[in-house]
Amino acid sequence: MTDHIDRTLADLGLALPEAAAPVAAYVPVVEVNGLVHLSGQLPFKDGTLVTGRLGESVSLEQGQEAARLCGLMIVAQLKKHLGDLSRVRRIVKLGVFVNSTGDFTDQPKVANGASELMAALFGDAGRHARSAVGVPVLPLGAAVEIDAIVEIGELLA
Q1: Nearest to 57 by CA among 99, 114, 106
Q2: Smallest Cα–Cα separation from 126: which of 96, 86, 90, 156?
Q3: Which member of 4, 51, 95, 119 lies 3.0 to 4.6 Å from 126 by CB, making a disulfide possible if both were Cys?
Q4: Hey, is 11 helix, strand or coil?
Q5: pTM: predicted TM-score of the whole model, two decimal places
Q6: Residue 126 half-sphere exposure, CB side, CA atoms within 13 Å?
Q7: pLDDT in tens, 7-54
Q8: From CA 137, how far away is CA 114, in angstroms rounded?
């Protein structure tokens, strides 16, 4: 699985970032009863946080890219926590928060940036339940924040 993900990332011209450290009093990952709960991940491009508000200073395409960057950070956190992505059995749910104006209603289209990445990396196991909501502000002014629930198992031989 890890080799497949590495090849797919390379084919897409993407790379996993270094897993970000928490910015407050929480842990990035909690594992319980075969599920990994990932705290909200922010979009970093070349080490810089992607900030702004959809419907104002951030385009739909930029929002989708920010969601994809959050997805990459989720996978980076999984790899750091699990050591091997072959333990991932299913991306269960993504919670997508979009920093947006009151009249912006394309949060689901923004969220597709992360959802499509999960399907590309994990195949059918990357298809997940999801919420996509607009919020007036996110930590540090981020454009998008995404949390996740992931089912895991033992290493595959």
Answers
A1: 99
A2: 90
A3: 119
A4: helix
A5: 0.95
A6: 20
A7: 898 999 999 999 999 989 999 999 999 999 999 999 999 999 999 999
A8: 20
